[in-house]
Amino acid sequence: MDDLTEAFVELIRLTSTDLPADVEKSLVSAREQEAQGSAAVGALDTILENVSLARRESLPICQDTGTPIFYVNYPEGWSTRKLRGQIRNAVVEATKQSYLRPNAVDSVTDKNSGNNLGDDAFPTIHFEEVEGDELTVDLMLKGGGCENVGAQYSLPNGPLGAGRDLDGVRKVALDAVQKAQGQGCAPGFLGVAVGGDRGSSFDASKEVLLEKIDDANPDQALADLENRLTDDANEMGIGPMGFGGKTTVLGSKIKGLHRLPASFFVSISYMCWANRQKRMTIQGNSVTYS
Amino acid sequence: MQNVSLPISDDVIKSLHIGDPVQLSGTMITGRDAAHKWMVETFIKQTRQPEGDDQDVYDAIKLILAGGAIYHCGPVVTGLDTKDYKFAAAGPTTSTREEIYQADVMRHFGMRAVVGKGGMGANTLAACGEMPAVYLHAIGGAAALIARTVVNVKGVHKMDFGVPEAMWVIEVENFPAVVTMDSHGNSLHADIDTSSKAVLDRLVSA
Fold it and tell me: How confident is the model at residue B1 (pLDDT cuts 50, 70, 90)?
């Protein structure tokens, strides 16, 4: 397949307008847990109505369509230079069609480029060569509200009594959730990276959010910590939009990375309830979306 | 559910308490980071001179903000080529970034409401008591639904700020929100912050 620009535009449209089924399902179950007549239920009702409307009318779920982040896994023989060009063209086209808000602002001149193209990192494109003959592209749209409440800690952390171990990871991650309050558009999802350097740690905390909510972490210690983190976070009672309630975090994903002996970073990427992601798979001439 | 019309009278503002759901109707204006910085620097603290259309824009927004509301929102807008503007997605943005400006802006223009998400801090709460005014929390991310309540895009100022940062003059009908900061000194956000901090302290000391 030569030019994937149109296929990329469709990937962007779907990601912006059609919330993944597992995310919607977890919002429905959150609604069931909240008290009838509460502001939390009111918020979740509005959210669920919005999700249906956006899908039905092909409208952006949220006006903040974030930095488009593409994860491209390509078989041998594909040109990443051409793919990058096609993705950038698709981003411009999707912006024209109002599936993306023009979001690329030059930090030095303060000018919005108007077409969502900025430097090489805007949109962000990760390339990875893989075995086999299938090209897959995951797209994540993560808005600024939840991006702004992400945090990175260096362990040990005295004030929180957080040491260099998984319980220390739990403590700092909970601190990040408490500081976020409703500002990351709770109820949200936590992507946590343990280790790495500052850059690789933040990257991994975002990439781990691509996993499906029900996917079990193969590492039992991390799987246990994910569940504990979600339960503890919900105990804080921050609730949907920070209105108070039982559901603050709908799921947690944790990834371990190697680190330097001197460093122990914990990075937390907070994903809002509008957890927009889709995958495009290309095999031969067939394009599928999931 | 209480219906609130813009501009809002002091009596209506005083009747509102945290937790009250409201539906807002009338004309309001969007303004976020660039707009607040511009208003404060050019007309309130006057650390920069008005230039270009600054004075005209100021004169126009003054009429809407007196007794009115500002909406922290950077919308997705269709019809940019034809200027036949329509909001496609228009949820609130995080308000706390405007905390350093908001109280001054409220006092300067005589505002009665700030609409956004995530709540604001002590300075804005104090201004809510003085004006009197309220902070109305819209549902973050519910952008398609909220855009439906924008029945008319009447115009736009400061397009050079970019589409999200421009000041859009909009007419809304039954715009849904919850009062989370009232004119009686109450903030749901301060309450939840305190109670969740107490739980956090317990969870990390375990």
Answer: confident
Distance from CA of B35 to the nearest CA of A (A): 13
Nearest to B88 among A50, A60, A272 (CB): A60
Residue of A nearest to B90 (CA): A63
Burial of A7 (0-12, 13-18, 19+ CB in 10 A): middle
CA distance A249 to chain B (A): 14
Neighbours of A218 (CB within 10 A): 7
B13 three-class SS: helix
Nearest to A241 among B78, B117, B199 (CB): B117
**Phi-psi category of residue B69: left, alpha or beta, with phi > 0 → left and psi -120 to 50 → alpha:** beta
Q: Taking the complete model, does pTM exceed 0.90, yes or no?
A: yes
The counts of H helices and E strands in chain A are 8, 9
Contact at CB, B93 and A144, closer than 8 angstroms: yes
Nearest to B145 among A46, A102, A175 (CB): A46
> For residue A26, what are the CA distances in angstroms to A22, A173, A275?
6, 21, 11
Looking up tokens 């260099």 gives A164
Q: Please name the member of A59, A160, A244 whose beta carbon is closest to the beta carbon of B204.
A: A160
By CB atoms closer than 10 A (0-12, 13-18, 19+), residue B101 is buried
Sort out which chain A residues have CB atoms less than 8 A from B200's CB and list them. 174-175, 178, 236
Beta strands at B21-30 and B2-5: parallel, antiparallel or unpaired: parallel
Instruction: Pull the structure tokens for residue A289.
Output: 């979306």
Q: Where in chain A is the domain with CATH 3.30.360?
A: 5-15+61-143+276-289
pLDDT at residue A112 is higher than 70 = yes
- Within 8 A of A235 by CB-CB distance, chain B residues are 199, 203
Q: How far apart are CA A239 and CA B195, in angstroms?
A: 12
Contact A235 B93 (CB under 8 A): no
Q: What is the mean pLDDT of chain A?
A: 97
Domain A5-15+61-143+276-289 - what CATH class?
A: alpha beta
Contacts A–B by Cβ distance under 8 A: 169
Q: For chain B, which domains are there?
A: 2-205 (3.20.130.10)
Pairwise CA distance, residues A76 & A128, whole Å? 10
- Write out pLDDT tens, residues A131-158: 999 999 999 999 999 999 999 999 999 9
